[in-house]
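RECORD TYPE: inverse folding
INPUT: structure tokens
STRUCTURE:
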């Protein structure tokens, strides 16, 4: 047995075989060829070899996974024999006199792009299959070993690191948990894992490598421990812990439908953070009273191209309808820094967290912003939607964002389309500047939501992506808590609501502090709602409590 200690990114126990994702940074050679016939023969031989590999995988999967899952490998075999595919390869090699690798890359791009533009979601998903088989073919052409591991149900996914879009792309029905060599607990990857309710451990270090692939493993997401080839004693302990957690969950279920009210009568709403319609289902099953942060960028991260107004409208509408009258706060596009979608072609920057990100990109590319705002306003006719702007630091930014919202509204009114004229426009307080001028911003914003992940990073000058400076990114720092308190006071003086939607909202050691500050709503990952409700209901503010400026957290020498 080998024990690796990392940082717990999402709680829970998971047991399963390790599937190590090796990312391939393919260099695809492009060269002119003289001997067309020889290159055609090379491409044909590679195709035959790839098809034979897929047949082996199919037979193995039949034995281990069953007919339904195994079918994928048959579909891939058919794709490699498909006339459109083979004729495209032949055409490029013959007419352009280019090598087989180039022909595979071009064919893959063209066919995958064709599938992506289809209306039928099933056919759209085939684009991933085209890329997958083409990758296999390139491996054969370049003499690389194929990845022959099959993700079995209940696998623990391991990787050097996962990007937010890779995390979102994981099929959560097949994943027991995930572990990464790098990463940090406040990265978006970890946040998405928490929202998905998947146990996860990050920053496990060099002990985690491809050689762990296929090993049996157990993870404890709360303590951040990975056990490779766990012995009987560990397995018994993990089973016990798993049972405890199950019972705890069953006990918490009794709190569904109960108010989030402290013993002395202070109410603090509990909303959920979400990035997808699946998360909304999970929010509902955990009795969220609303969605406090819908990270709309997940839609962009999951797509291969800008999502159209109609596609966005359908998703926002479905979110609003599912929440049936409860508030759904949708944050406008917050892309950039660690959240990258290739098709945006964002310029490389020295300090991306301080660069062109979030609202700044929306101002820079108004057509993207207006498309999203139109979709949001249209969806507002179907439920209780509010819009929230990220990364606001100045009054002019808030005014400019409101100006774009008015433009979208005017366009829709001219077209005679339905929307809610009372839709609220709020802002995230995630820069120290916004917290400090929150008295001024509160005059023009309908509500505040404090993004403590970025607020901590910018206040303490500590990169949230960098696990090696974790001790400098102290979310309990007096400076962060004072900014939260200042923001809450200014919001209430102006008569607007203030929530917290950063990860700190889910920290039970601060629940009492937030109640004392009068925070109106905490928005947390769906699995954190019922434990926090329990915490609120056990708190009595009439008893002496911690000072709300965080000074009790300061460690004195
Ligand atoms: C935050 O910064 O606290 C926040 C909620 O936004 P994100 O984590 O998506 O940057
Ligand atoms: Mg943020």
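DESIGNED SEQUENCE:
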């Amino acid at each position: 047995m080998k024990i690796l200690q990392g940082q717990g990114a999402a709680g829970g126990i998971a047991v399963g075989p390790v599937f190590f994702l090796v990312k391939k940074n393919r260099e695809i050679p492009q060269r002119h060829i003289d001997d067309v016939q020889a290159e055609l023969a090379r491409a044909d031989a590679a195709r035959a070899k790839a098809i034979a590999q897929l047949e082996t995988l199919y037979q193995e999967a039949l034995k281990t996974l069953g007919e339904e899952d195994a079918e994928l490998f048959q579909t891939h075999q058919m794709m490699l024999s498909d006339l459109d595919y083979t004729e495209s390869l032949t055409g490029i090699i013959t007419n352009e006199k280019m090598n087989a690798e180039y022909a595979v890359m071009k064919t893959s791009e063209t066919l995958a792009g064709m599938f992506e533009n289809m209306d039928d979601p099933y056919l759209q998903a085939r684009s991933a299959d085209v890329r997958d088989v083409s990758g296999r073919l390139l491996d054969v052409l370049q003499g690389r070993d194929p990845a022959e591991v099959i993700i079995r149900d209940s696998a623990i996914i391991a990787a050097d690191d996962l990007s937010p879009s890779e995390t979102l792309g994981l099929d959560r029905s097949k994943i027991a948990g995930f572990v990464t060599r790098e990463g940090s607990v406040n990265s978006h990857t970890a946040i998405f894992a928490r929202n998905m309710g998947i146990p996860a451990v990050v920053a496990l270090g060099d002990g985690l490598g491809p050689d762990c692939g296929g090993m049996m493993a157990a993870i404890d997401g709360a303590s951040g421990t990975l056990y490779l080839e766990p012995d009987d004693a560990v397995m018994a302990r993990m089973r016990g812990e798993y049972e405890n957690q199950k019972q705890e969950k069953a006990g918490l279920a009794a709190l569904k439908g109960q108010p989030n009210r402290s013993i002395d009568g202070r109410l603090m709403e509990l909303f959920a953070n979400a990035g997808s319609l699946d998360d909304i289902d999970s929010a509902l099953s955990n009795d969220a009273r609303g969605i406090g942060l819908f990270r709309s960028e997940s839609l962009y991260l999951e797509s291969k191209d800008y999502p159209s107004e109609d596609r966005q409208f359908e998703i926002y509408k479905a979110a609003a309808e599912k929440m049936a009258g409860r508030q759904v706060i949708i944050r406008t596009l917050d892309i950039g820094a660690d959240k990258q979608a290739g098709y945006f072609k964002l310029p490389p920057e020295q300090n991306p967290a301080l660069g062109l990100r979030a609202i700044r990109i929306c101002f820079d590319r108004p057509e993207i912003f207006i498309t999203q705002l139109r979709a949001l306003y249209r969806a507002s006719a179907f439920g209780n939607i509010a819009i929230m702007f990220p990364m606001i630091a100045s009054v002019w930014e808030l005014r400019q964002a409101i100006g774009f919202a008015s433009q979208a509204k005017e366009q829709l009114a001219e077209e005679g389309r339905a929307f809610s004229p009372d839709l609220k426009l709020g802002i995230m307080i995630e820069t120290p500047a916004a917290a400090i001028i929150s008295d001024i911003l509160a005059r023009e914003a309908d509500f505040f939501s404090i993004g403590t992940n970025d607020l901590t990073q910018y206040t303490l000058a500590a990169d949230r992506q960098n696990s090696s400076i974790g001790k400098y990114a102290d979310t309990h720092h007096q400076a962060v808590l004072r900014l939260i308190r200042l923001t809450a006071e200014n919001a209430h003086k102006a008569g607007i609501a203030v929530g917290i939607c950063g990860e700190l909202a889910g920290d039970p050691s601060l629940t009492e502090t937030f109640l004392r500050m009068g925070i109106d709503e905490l928005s947390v990952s769906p699995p954190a709602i019922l434990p926090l409700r329990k915490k609120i209901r056990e708190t009595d503010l009439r008893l002496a409590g911690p000072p709300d400026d965080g000074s009790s957290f300061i460690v004195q020498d």
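NOTES: The domain at 2-20+147-232 is CATH 3.50.30.10 (Glucose Oxidase; domain 1).
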